[in-house]
Amino acid sequence: MQLLNDWIANFGGAGDFSRITPDHQERFTKSGFIKRSSIPRWTSRAVYYRDRGRCTFCQRDVSGSLSMGSKINLDHIVPLAAGGINDVTNLQLLCEECNSSKSDKRLSTSNKYERWYSPS
Predict the structure, then answer these.
(1) Within a domain: residue 91?
(2) Cα 24 to the chain's mean position, in Å?
(3) Is residue 107 domain-resident?
(4) pTM of the model
(5) Which of 49, 57, 102, 115 minimizes the number of CB atoms within 10 Å of its CB?
(6) Where is pLDDT greater, at 64 or 11?
(7) E strand intervals along the chain
(8) Chain-centre distance of CA 95, in angstroms?
(9) pLDDT value at position 91?
């Protein structure tokens, strides 16, 4: 997913307002990046279930079933300030500790994904 979102960030051409219609300009910062907005509940749930309630960096359980102290953080894989987008493919589940240490840096995301089907 990181490669996809890096490609989207580079393709987007941050700062190029020539392709943005006037009625959509309020969704972008002055430098041309997408503004931060609240993440819809369905998106949060989709990321939570996709990542199986675990931090994608350290695999810590953040579901609350094993540890009540774990707080869920949705993190942009490619930060909005670097041209990332508000999309399920650009979000990952992190524990509070990993999210704090990552901050707005670009780090490699996990490449561990569960198969959705069994190839025949």
Answers:
(1) yes
(2) 22
(3) no
(4) 0.63
(5) 115
(6) 64
(7) 73-76, 91-94
(8) 13
(9) 92
